[in-house]
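Late entry, written up from scratch paper. The run itself happened at the end of the previous shift, but nothing got recorded in the book at the time, so transcribing now.
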Amino acid sequence: MTAPVTPATPPSQNPQTPKVSQNPDTAGSSPLLSALRSRFRPRLRVAAAAVVLGVLLLGAPSSLDDYGIGLLSKALALGVLAVSVSVLEGYAGLPSMGQAAPFLVGAYTAGIMGQHGHDLGVVQLLCGTATGAAFAAGTGLVAIRTRGVAFLMTTLAIGELTVTVAGQWHSLTGGTDGMYGIPPVRPLPGLIQLDSDGAVYWYVLAATVVAVGLTWRVLRSPVGKLLLAGRDHEGRMRSAGHRVAVHRWLAYTGAGGLAGFGGVLMCTVNAYVSPADGSFATSALVLLAVVLGGATSPLGAMFGAGLIVATRDWLSGPFPGHGPLLLGLMFIIAVYALPNGVAGLRIRLPRDLPRDLSWLRSRRRGGPA
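Output as recorded:
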């Protein structure tokens, strides 16, 4: 006799067959393509944001008047200061309330050099960066010994002391009246002075691109990874032999040099420097710019600075006297709606978009809705 043969159960009807769920991001792609996508997608996002921002900055002068071009130049100078704050807060974990102090030092350096006949823009930028870095290196020996609220109060005290000294040193800074009569700069040897708002804008834009580009390159190097590791895992970094305090001091010094660079640009735009440029209000505004744009994104910090200048000096025009109210509302909305800033936004299109729009094509051909 022949034993009865049990019919085989199809794989689709076997209850013990596990169902493998596919990730829509990696479905239909090899591991190599997935690795390449995960590696180059952040760079593509940064490149796309840089291209969009560059197109806007290059096309803005053709559609703005002299006042708008001047505001845009101020936004770029303030954006460099915001980038220095993002380096401290986003990478070193040091939220500063006195970053306007090296900014003021760099601005006064450019003003003093201009009044003494040194109107070469490149030399002013280098000297302003050096003085801002030297100021930050000296004050950082005290500031980096603190953390959290103590660091905020220490940097705030440094900023207020700097403003007080600038307001009382009449022979050097002009006191509370400020330093005026600063001549226009010459970008490079052999060029003429920049005597128009458009020429100053292109000069400030070129200098800003160089400064932000170098900063981004440094942050993408192992230096940025060391700062992030010291921010998130300080104990492990110390146990591995890394000198976290030295890394933070170097980051504080470099951010001070970048702030001094921005101060030189602000002096070039305004042709005037006063102690109010380094006040607590300036430090608070750039900290708000970093919150709006994203703590770990230099481009986001630049965008936040531009948004603040536009709200304070342009949007408040139809609402006189309500500039601080508009900034406060913008800050509240950003905290609740954009916890990671504008740089944290992710716009994603579905992969099956053509299939989702098939009903639209059928309606155009007269098919069923």
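The CA atoms of residues 67 and 197 lie 8 Å apart.
(Scratch paper discarded after transcription.)
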